[in-house]
Design brief:
This protein is α+β, with helices and mostly antiparallel strands. The chain has a 4-stranded antiparallel sheet, sandwiched between helices. Strands 5-7-6 form a 3-stranded antiparallel sheet, covered by helices on one side. Strand 6 and strand 7 form a beta hairpin. The longest helix has 16 residues. The chain starts with 16 loop residues before the first strand and ends in a 33-residue tail after the last strand.
Length: 203
């Protein structure tokens, strides 16, 4: 999946508490998904992304078997960011598709809470969850998105290119070694009919 703008710092997440994402977080994950697609500027509404199957499938029926994720909350307990991962079949790939066995990462932090280390804390926790599940992680990041620095710092490498976005992969110990990065020939369409940008909103 795509990820949103991450102006990450090296300091720990300020007053943020991390917890596993649950079924009750489905609505908030949709909000984060919107932030990820609107990382540079407002381009879509929540209603538009939820009625577009190629976008909505990142949160549809959350959680499905194999899904995992983490939510960041502020001091009063309000969710301010999330990261999650989900696999997709080859005939219904996400924007960062590498292999049906490789979950795609979505990460976002709400405006006003970025630049505090929350995105990095979410990413580190999700990577730890992936390592325990013995799976790699992939994502797609659009040109100009500062989140790419966060992913590169955590070991993600570019393995493909589609449109104006890079597909990145993080290989983890103990996972399958015969993966071949793939891209799909036709990009899903935006709610307005154009080629879709990469979703990503960190912080």
């Amino acid at each position: 999946m795509r990820t949103g703008p991450a102006t990450e710092t090296d300091r720990p997440a300020d007053r943020a508490r991390l917890r596993p994402a649950t079924a009750a977080d489905a609505g908030f994950l949709a909000e984060v998904l919107l932030e990820a697609f609107n990382w540079a500027q407002p381009r879509f509404t929540l209603e538009e992304i939820l009625r577009t199957p190629s976008i909505a499938h990142y949160v549809t029926d959350w959680p499905r078997p194999g899904d995992f994720g983490v939510v960041a909350e502020d001091g009063p307990g309000r969710p301010v960011g999330a990261a999650w991962a989900r696999t997709f079949p080859a005939d219904d790939p996400g924007y960062g598709h590498v292999d049906p066995l490789v979950p795609e990462l979505t990460l976002g932090v709400l405006p006003g809470h970025r630049g505090r280390g929350i995105g990095g804390a979410l990413l580190d926790t999700l990577v730890a969850q992936a390592a325990r599940a013995r799976v790699d992680l992939s994502l797609s990041v659009e040109d100009g998105n500062p989140a790419v620095r966060l992913y590169a710092a955590r070991g993600f490498v570019t393995v493909g290119r589609e449109g104006n976005s890079d597909t990145m992969l993080l290989r983890l110990p103990g996972t399958p070694t015969d993966l071949t990065a793939t891209t799909h020939d036709e990009r899903p369409r935006t709610p307005t009919g154009g080629a879709h940008p990469a979703p990503s909103a960190g912080g």
